[in-house]
Design a protein that fits this description.
The chain contains 52 helices and 66 strands. The two termini are 36 Å apart. The chain is globular and about 110 Å long. Strand 23 and strand 24 form a beta hairpin. The relative contact order is 0.05. It has 1684 residues and is an alpha/beta fold. Strands 1, 2, 3, 4, 8, 10 and 11 form a seven-stranded mixed β-sheet that branches. Strands 39, 40, 41, 42, 43, 44 and 45 form a seven-stranded antiparallel β-sheet that branches.
């Protein structure tokens, strides 16, 4: 039998098994073919077996049985997982046999669809896996069945062949028939045994004449070598490490079900070991167990220490350890071997940070050496670091640990030996201890780490000597420490890593620079030219003390603090003054109406701080009397609003009382009163916060927030005539109840919410709903009422088919519905009809309603019609009237077949769904405030969620764990969720959203939803209920976004009135800030690229830079495609930090990719220009953070702090010794004792408890008992050797610990109370280490406040625990702003003092679900397809950019560098009015000789020549479209490109550098994307070429680019209907992604005639007018009946 191998994925035992089969199935001698293994002389085993079966009847030549052919170790690359991989396929004379090979020893059993080896779970049953391979191979053969006799696919059988020493008789019968030992399988060369096993059809013979068909099938590009996979983990690429003696190789492997789950796959070849133990299973198991024993030993003593070692995932049995053995080890996420880590990350760290990493490394070994474990084989291969400074150690195979000592002579064979130690250079043998060896290696590793130099894979003697010379010649503070570590003489080195760590910590330079206030921070508040007394002469003294002076000057109040000198602050006054001035600055910018106007502040020429504010001529709160109830309520609400506004900004007054609140109460009770808070802010010389005891809670530790809230409540009830302390007859019951609740609650006075609710209950009685009566003419008398459904009575409007001047209006609610004809001109209803009753509002009516009202309608069917009340009510509603007008005009325009051009410039709202093409002329342009639009978007967002209608009563499922809810819905609503999504079922009750519980997607069906049962949910769900599905992620996002919108609309953002800047009519005069940069300032951003090209800011970027720096507070930057907005953002941020002194910048974007790219570029600028920059990157998923930002990922920073604190713990605590009254030596001894002895004691106590739970006589109890004995021996030895204590063996571990404490305290002369203080400190430190990463510690919140550059997605930075709203940022920069919804923008914008929005409103806008758009329109009283609505729903970026204010604070980048000139010119002319210019950039050489299909820079591939074949078709159940002609044309084009080997090879080379696919297929419809992907997968491509191609929708492409872009327009129909392709935004994105070649595939005739003025029509015309073959070309496709 000839066997064709695909090298790579077969293990040695599999190859040996296949070779056994090849020899057995050799058949007759035959001529050898290239690539086959030559047969040996004599008759084969197959011939001999056949002879036996045929008993002499021509036995040497059994008719037609031979030859057979095998195909080994291949996979179909277009199939998923194991089912596409084949160990061996044998083509016999009568059938095809799929062979699955397993080399297992022991007892094989099966349970629950899985196989077990000696009781250990291995994996899914190989039978079920191989059955699926049968189906796959049958499918592949079916494609070539016409080449077989009668067009019939050959019969396929399968068999699991076991080559190890195992028994499998316990397998179930249905599996047993498919399992054989290798010895039995090779006997199938006997034809009788073969026929008995497979029972082939008598006419099936002769299949071995069709090897060429199998060869052809398996020669395709989609057939690849089988990938190496062990226990569900698949090896990734080439080995990452090879043992020098080839004893093992290591691969990085990924879990096939979860790519983020990584493992280290180690393949052992024990044949390479010259050791008798390697020849037996017991010996091999002993070698393998060595590493496990060391790690178990460490784990029992220090669990955290063991977690930082790379550990085997499973424990093998003795019999399972074969000559070739596969071992999987846990590989922590984002860890890299030492050299890779140094090259990726450490090179970018400061030296001090790298030394900290070295300490963390040494600390790991210090702990190990403390437990008498030495590694002895250190090098790049055995040390792993993550960007978070977490460490992992591996390759403990040659380790030493005390209980078992050394591994003996085989250590030399097992060790990697990457470091040639001096003691190994002599013939005397191994000098020194194992710990000396580790210390030497650590010295070298620490030096390389600190110097950011990678290590050679082999550190020979010469190299080591050169490193020692470098260390000795270095003047770094740590060089002397490392020099001792690498002494030639082992006895001259540190005895262990603990001593090395102590010495490193001991000589670490102290940070002697005490906190010194930077006086320059106050300079911006200097007013040296101001003479306060001259400008503001005193009219009336109010306060005159040495510390503070307050007087009135005209209409001003002047405050001075004479004893404070801001020009030379003393004793902590500097930070106090800075905080005071910054608070004034913030309040001055806020424009709060409840604060007196701030006229001037700062410090004068003598350094005296001063503050000048408006004098308020009103009454103090304490002077108010004889107020009406309404006026008192008004003042209280004003006070609550003012204080809540302050608190939202994390500002407090802290000393509120009736004496510092002034009120102006107009005589006219109808005029609003005005309230003012005085003494905010205030300054005291001592720095203590003043407060009034009467208006503060009794609690000693109350916060300023609680003091403010207490004061508000007390002043409020006193104003209403109530006594705070004693109930009285005039009390208001709800307020008294609220006061008592606050006083008794542990959370009392934390917020004003409960008190505010009590006010509402007391002063706001429930509104009575209006009732309208209508009479409808009819014969059958009927009376019923129509009630709003949770405040919503639904109104539908459509044109009257009989009268174009009238509309038919339908009113639907709970109880019934009716319709009436509405005459637009007279604004009256002229007749009523179709009255009907209904219990509930059908879901489709709610979804399709055009308008909502909150009114009750009483309907009577009588002989006289009366609709007067209805006419008055609806006719006075302007929004309703305009809605009717727009719908009637739309109908009239449609009937006249009018086409308006207004829609061309409107916003593309709904993603990938065709908007009905009715054009709605406007009566007049309606102006709706942005605040109302934002509120409507948020209030109706739930309408865009997947919706279902309950179709029956819920019932329990079989196991009573869930409710099965029958439902109906439009489409497959569950398909939009991932299987691991947590989905909530939502019910709306008016404005409230009720969460009914979590949906179990796995148990849900197409007709019934499974709701996890919670006891109360069943009663809440009734038939006909409309429910919504919402993922936890979406729900959390909605909450954050809604709160941000509410804060901005409530004018609580840092920029008050922020929403006003987004009104289209905004004409606010921009504020002036700073001064523009100089040319010298711009020059620093010029630099030379690796290709020698000089890049920097162009003139347009400089102009934008200057305008945006100097004008604000909200600015807008339009960045058309390829204009370098990321480069601009990076330079802008650097300038803000280095020149403008920005203390913190918040950088956000919609996508993780944009955030990563911008942040990386900013860091690169700062590194190049030596600018200090602290960054934090927030995300709840590590995978979305780029490699370059992993070290500043928030969770990484937390781990860094933990690791560093732990490594320096002894030193940190020793520094505190003087304040505790003890010696540093005592603290160090105590820390050491806690780490080693106390750690052992805790482990002993834990093991003792486990032993008691295990029960006597069990195997587990024997193992635990042995471990306990070893640990007790360790404890006794440690006490004796380190503390001179001879403890009695019968003493408890705890008693031994007390003896150790007593010994250490006595030797250092420490008294009990001093000892207790030190222990408390140590425990506090340990708790800090444990807590720092917990949610309770919330280190992320600290990072949010402390870092200079904070990065994340728009929604991600709003995670509740980050407390973003409690912060303020000097600048907030939002990338992709034109694509963000108002609520996404709001999360970041609310906290910015200056805000820059970067985007392009000519590209993709925000997208909303169709149902959400309808709900927004309904809320705003607009028709959802009107131009008015489209204009209002433009992006906030566009609306503000084009306003009068926007023109003063916006800039546009006008030079693009992405597209070659012909592409750039096309995009500029069609989408940017010709204003976009093209900059110079190099073009890859390969494009000068590109394949003919892309020979022109811009090509339109016209499918229109195909006639009807060019037309699109609709996918069933979808609004999306597909076009087979275009898909086939694209596949042919890709084939042509692939066939040009020189060109495609150049693209492959390009991709290895950029890591981005150079060919992009952009589909305008999502279903077309699926079709093109399907057709692409069906074709055979080289593996390299497959990686070159990316296929996606236009909505996923903004911000991306490819060398070659092919656009599938998809839409083509006889009626020339353009659908959403009439809108410019998506077309712009599609056309502007190409760098060097743009190919448009589509029907050109679609975009002529009436569509010629649409964007695609303009593109077509532009190309037609400029055809020259080189720049622009129009080509016709070939006949498209199937792709080539």
């Amino acid at each position: 039998m000839e066997v064709r191998y695909w090298e790579g994925g077969l293990l040695r035992h599999e190859v040996e098994a296949i070779e056994s089969m090849r020899k057995a199935f050799k058949g007759e001698p035959e001529l050898e073919q290239p690539g086959t293994v030559a047969p040996t002389g004599g008759k084969s085993l197959a011939q001999q077996l056949s002879n036996l079966s045929l008993k002499g009847k021509g036995a040497d030549h059994p008719s037609g049985m031979w030859p057979w052919k095998g195909y080994a170790g291949f996979r179909f690359a277009d199939s998923r997982g194991k089912e596409g991989e084949f160990d061996l396929v044998i083509v016999t004379h009568k059938n095809v046999i799929i062979v699955e090979l397993k080399h297992w020893n022991g007892v094989i059993t099966s349970h629950g669809g899985k196989w077990y080896q000696n009781g250990d779970e291995r994996d899914r049953s190989p039978i079920s896996v191989t059955q699926n391979k049968v189906f796959l191979l049958k499918k592949k053969l079916n494609a070539v069945r016409q080449q077989f006799p009668k067009g019939i696919v050959p019969n396929i059988k399968f068999c699991v062949v076991l080559s190890g020493k195992c028994t499998f008789d316990q397998l179930p019968d249905n599996e047993l028939e498919h399992v054989m030992h290798l010895d039995d399988f090779v006997k199938l060369a006997n034809e009788r045994l073969f026929n008995n096993k497979f029972r082939p059809h008598p006419e099936a013979a002769g299949l071995n004449q069709y090897f060429d068909v199998f060869d052809q099938l398996l020669n395709q590009g989609s057939v690849k070598p089988k990938e190496l996979m062990v226990d569900g983990f698949r090896a990734q690429g080439e080995p990452i490490f090879k043992h020098p003696g080839e004893v093992y190789v290591e691969y990085e492997a990924a879990n096939e079900n979860n790519k983020a789950d990584r493992a280290l796959l180690r393949l052992w070849d024990f044949n390479k070991l010259d050791d008798v133990d390697a020849k037996t299973p017991e010996g091999r198991f002993k070698i393998l167990s060595r590493e496990r024993d060391v790690l178990v030993y460490l784990g029992q003593r220090d669990h955290e220490l063991a977690k930082r070692c790379v550990r085997p995932i499973r424990n093998p049995s003795v019999q399972s350890v074969t000559q070739e053995f596969s071992e999987l080890c846990e590989l922590p996420a984002s860890h890299y071997r030492l050299n890779e880590f140094i090259n990726r990350y450490a090179q970018n760290y400061e030296e001090s940070e790298r030394v900290k990493l070295a300490k963390i490394l040494v600390a790991q070994f210090a702990a190990m050496h403390g437990f008498k474990v030495a590694h002895r084989d250190l090098g790049d291969h055995s040390v792993w670091f993550s960007p978070s400074s977490a460490i992992a150690l591996s390759n403990f195979i040659a380790a030493y640990h005390q209980p078992a000592g050394t591994v003996g002579p085989r250590r030399d064979q097992l060790s990697i030996g990457s470091i040639a130690l001096p003691e190994d250079r002599t013939d005397e043998g191994h000098g020194g201890t194992p710990f000396h060896r580790d210390v030497f290696a650590l010295g070298l590793l620490c030096w390389h780490l600190a110097q950011a130099k990678s290590l050679p894979l082999k550190l020979n003697a010469d190299y080591i000597d050169s490193v020692r010379d470098d260390i000795l010649g270095s003047d770094t503070w740590y060089a002397g420490v490392l020099a001792k570590a690498v002494e030639h003489n082992p006895s001259s080195r540190y005895a262990n890593a603990g001593e090395l760590l102590d010495e490193l910590n001991q000589v670490t330079p102290e940070d002697t620079e005490q906190f010194a206030f930077d006086q320059s921070q106050l300079e911006r508040f200097s007013a040296s030219n101001v003479r306060v007394y001259k400008i503001y002469p005193a009219d009336e003294e109010i306060i005159d003390t040495p510390e503070k002076e307050v007087y009135r000057s005209g209409d001003c109040i002047v405050k001075l603090w004479p004893t404070i000198h801001a020009d030379a602050p003393q004793g902590g006054q500097g930070p106090l003054l800075l905080s005071f001035f910054e608070k004034i600055e913030l309040l001055n910018k806020s424009g709060y109406e409840f604060l007196p106007r701030i006229d001037q502040f700062g410090y004068d020429r003598s350094g005296t701080p001063f503050l000048v504010q408006q004098f308020i001529d009103g009454q103090h709160w304490s002077e108010l009397s004889q107020l009406s109830s309404r006026r008192a309520e008004e003042l209280i609400r004003n006070l609550i609003s003012a204080v809540e506004c302050l608190h939202e900004q994390q500002l407090t007054h802290g000393d509120l009382h009736p004496g510092n609140i002034k009120v102006i109460v107009p005589v006219d009770d109808g005029q609003p009163a005005q309230i003012y808070l005085l003494d905010l802010p205030d300054l005291t010389v001592s720095g203590n916060e003043p407060f009034n005891n009467r208006y503060s809670p009794l609690a000693e530790s109350c916060t300023p927030f609680e003091r403010d809230n207490f004061a508000v409540m007390r002043m409020a009830v006193e104003l209403l005539g109530m006594d705070w302390d004693q109930p009285g007859e005039h009390d208001l019951a709800e307020l008294r109840k609220a006061i008592n609740e606050e006083l008794q609650s542990e959370s009392g006075f934390v917020a004003l919410e409960r008190f505010n609710d009590a006010l509402n209950r007391e002063f706001c009685p429930k509104q009575v709903r209006q009732i309208i009566s209508v009479a409808i003419r009819g014969n059958d008398s009927l009376n019923y009422a129509i009630y709003p459904d949770n405040g919503r009575l639904f109104v539908g409007v459509k044109p009257d088919a009989k009268d174009a001047k009238q509309a038919v209006v339908t009113f639907s609610g709970v109880g019934g519905s009716f319709s009436a004809a509405y005459e637009k001109v007279s604004k009256t209803f002229v007749r009523g009809f179709k009255p009907s009753q209904q219990e509930a509002v059908p879901h489709w009516i709610e979804r399709n309603a055009d308008f909502e009202i909150d009114v009750e309608i009483n309907v009577a069917v009588t002989n006289i019609s009366s609709l007067k009340e209805l006419s008055v009510f609806m006719g006075s509603n302007l929004a309703f009237d305009e809605l009717v007008a727009s719908i009637l005009d739309a109908a009239r325009a449609s009937s006249e077949n009018q086409w308006g051009e207004g829609a061309q410039n409107s916003t593309d709202l709904a993603a990938d769904s065709d908007i009905p093409e009715e054009h709605v002329p406007e009566i007049k342009v309606r102006s709706i405030q942005t605040s109302k639009v934002w509120k409507a978007i948020m209030d109706t967002e739930v309408e865009g969620l997947p919706t279902l209608e309950v179709s029956g009563e819920p019932v329990f499922n079989k196991d009573k764990t869930g409710l099965m809810i029958p439902y109906t819905a439009n489409g497959e609503i569950l398909e939009s969720f991932e299987t691991d999504d947590k989905i909530n079922l939502i019910k709306k009750d008016g404005e409230k959203q009720i969460n009914l519980g979590e949906v179990d997607l796995r148990k849900s069906t197409k007709s019934a939803l499974c709701l996890v049962y919670s006891g109360k949910t069943r009663a809440a769900i009734k038939a006909d209920d409309v429910l919504y599905l919402q993922s936890n992620k979406n729900r959390s996002s909605l909450t954050r976004r809604k709160r941000a919108i509410e804060r901005i609309l409530g004018r609580q953002s840092v920029v008050t009135g922020l929403v006003d800047y987004f009104d289209e009519g905004c004409s606010i005069v921009p504020e002036r800030f700073s001064v523009p940069p100089t040319e010298e300032g711009f020059a620093v951003y010029q630099r030379e690229t690796s290709s020698g090209q000089t890049i920097g800011l162009n003139d347009a970027q400089k102009d934008a830079f200057s305008k945006l720096i100097t004008n604000g507070p909200v600015g807008f930057l339009q960045g058309p495609p390829g204009t370098g907005k990321t480069e601009f953002i990076a330079a802008f941020c650097h300038y803000l930090i280095s020149e403008e002194g920005a203390r913190n910048i918040l950088l956000v974007s919609q996508s993780h990719e944009a955030v990563n790219t911008a942040a990386e570029r900013i860091r690169a600028h700062c590194r190049r220009l030596n600018t200090d920059l602290d960054v934090v990157r927030f995300s709840n998923r590590e995978q979305v953070v780029s490699d370059e930002l992993q070290d500043v990922y928030s969770k990484s920073i937390v781990t860094q702090q933990q690791s560093s604190f732990s490594a320096e713990l002894k030193r940190r605590l020793s520094l505190m010794a003087p304040s505790l009254g003890v010696s540093a030596g005592f603290i160090a001894s105590l820390v050491e004792l806690e780490s080693r002895i106390h750690g052992l004691v805790k482990s002993i106590e834990r093991l003792d408890k486990d032993l008691q739970d295990a029960g006597e006589g069990t195997l587990e109890s024997k193992q635990l008992s042995a471990s306990l004995s070893r640990m007790q021996e360790d404890l006794l030895e440690a006490l004796a050797s380190d503390y001179g204590i001879s403890a009695a063996p019968e003493s408890t571990a705890r008693n031994m610990l007390e003896q150790a404490y007593a010994s250490v305290t006595a030797s250092h002369g420490v008294r009990p109370h001093e000892f207790k203080r030190c222990m408390d400190l140590i425990k506090l430190s340990e708790e800090l280490l444990q807590r720092i990463a917990t949610d309770g510690a919330n280190y992320d919140e600290f990072l949010m406040r402390a870092r200079t550059l904070v990065c994340g997605t728009c929604v991600g930075v709003g995670l509740p625990h980050l407390k973003l709203a409690e912060n303020r940022f000097d600048w907030v920069i939002i990338d992709e702003a034109a694509r963000s919804s108002p609520s996404e923008l709001a999360i970041a914008m609310q906290v910015g003092s200056r805000i820059l929005l970067v985007g392009d409103h000519r590209q993709l806008p925000p997208t909303y679900a169709d149902e959400h758009l309808k709900a927004i329109a309904r809320d705003l009283g607009l028709h959802s397809q009107s131009d008015d609505f489209r204009r209002i729903m433009r992006s906030d970026f566009e609306r503000a950019f084009e306003s009068a204010y926007g023109r003063g604070v916006s800039a546009t980048l006008k030079v693009q560098y992405r597209m070659q000139p012909p592409i750039g010119d096309l995009v500029s002319e069609v989408f940017y009015g010709g204003e976009l210019m093209t900059g110079v950039r190099p073009v890859p050489e390969c494009f000068s000789n590109a394949p003919d299909v892309i020979g022109s820079i811009v090509t339109w591939l016209d499918t229109g020549v195909l006639g009807k074949q060019a037309n699109h078709s609709e996918q069933q159940g979808s609004t999306s479209l597909v076009n087979h002609a275009e898909a086939n044309s694209i596949i042919r084009m890709l084939k042509d490109i692939e066939s040009d080997m020189e060109f495609s090879s150049a693209l492959v080379e390009e991709m290895t550098e950029t890591m981005e696919p150079p060919i992009g297929i952009i589909c305008m419809y999502s279903e077309q994307k699926k079709l093109v992907r399907k057709k692409f997968a069906e074709k055979t491509w080289s593996e390299d070429f497959k990686k070159l191609v990316k296929i996606d929708t236009v909505d996923s492409y903004q911000g991306k680019e490819n060398r070659i872009v092919i656009v599938s327009l998809t839409r083509s129909s006889a009626d020339l209907s353009p659908g959403f392709l009439r809108l410019p935004n998506r077309i712009n994105v599609a056309m502007s992604r190409a760098m060097d070649r743009l190919v448009i595939v589509g029907d050109m005739s679609m975009w002529a005639g009436r569509n010629a003025e649409l964007p695609l029509g303009k593109v077509a015309t532009y190309i037609q007018e400029r055809q020259d073959g080189e720049r622009y070309k129009i080509a016709s496709v070939e006949n498209a009946k199937g792709a080539a």
